[in-house]
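re: that chain from earlier
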Amino acid sequence: MKTYLLMMRKAVLIGSIFLLFFARGVIGATYYVAVDGNDSRGNGTEGIPWASIEHGVAQLTPGDSLIVKDGTYTDHDNDTYAVYVRVDGTSDNWITIRAENEGGVIIDGQNEKTTYGFFLYRADYVRIDGFEIKNFAHSGIYLRSSHDSYISKCNIWGIGREYLNTKCTSDYSMAGIHAKLDTYNVTVDKCTLHDIGPIHRYPKYGAICIYDYKRGPPIYAAGYGWLIQNCLFYNMYGSMGILITTHTGSTDRSTHIITNNTFAHDVNDGYETCNSFGAQGHIKHCHTFSGNPPHDVVIQNNAFYNPPGTTAIWSSTSESSTNSLTIRNNVTSASNIYVRIKRSGTPTLIDNTAGLSLASFGMTDPENNDFTLTSLSHLISQGIASLSPGYDHDGNIRPTGAGGPDIGAYEYEKTNSKPSKPTGLHFE
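^ sequence. v structure.
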């Protein structure tokens, strides 16, 4: 009960913060970047924009927004990062980096010539919105020593596809979104992550890696306070959708909520890598060596369509209490919703369904990655409203009363209108 109340307070706090943004707006300026702009002669106005996102970001102060015009952007200065972000917002005035048109801006790693897409280093209260991020060697978005990040409506794919390095280290890994070293309070909302991981062998991590890590005194605790909602995960090669893990000496701060996501078509190519980070389901919950296990984790209202192996979620943690891991109202076609290996402990399992036929998911065209629901779906109104988002992957409002939300990233009923767009930070 204590853990549940903490989760509820966290969800209410997040909602209150964004409502405060809506009411206040922001006090900052709006700047522009365009592929035909000029960093030296431009002034960041819509008529005279800058040319590179990285240059534009460097000019931002709390409350500012950078609007990126349609086009393809690459690593313009060959520093291994397409966009290096080293600016801070504040709790009242976030910095926003936004594609003018969702999906119209491509951040391209040029067949893995570039290592990282967005690299946030000591960049707090930053929102990234609406980008297609593709073809990077190691990470689409890499968060390091940053807190309070909001990543929304991004399409991240083609990460680490040609990775052949047999050396397995935490610094050389493939992940759509990867966090390390004192990174916390991260929201990933309405994103699509797919085709991530090596075609050949030696998988490591997955679409999202939440990695608590210590490098010696003082303790660096990365990846606590995550909220992952309304996202699509599919075609992870030798990998998984989400990895939640700790390392030696990690603190016990976790408090993650993974709710109303759709997972599908991950590929287990038979390889296991160091610390058993191979594919054994769509979500892996574990800790390595002597680190404290991730705790206060809620996994709910998720649809696991055709996962690799016999389970949707697998764990190698030792649960110290029933509050450590709660798995509820999830649906999978696998024979198990959850399997533990190597260690001992019992999570809280509530109202999950395993072994559901693929047809019963009632998705429009899942083999071609259209996971919207039809009227025949058994996912309709089967979710729990507590801790779930008030809208779906497309921005449609989810019901909060009798019947409950649908399981997965989509709501079937479209009779409710989308919430109106707020000014300033452009949250939906």
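The helical segments are 2-24, 53-58.
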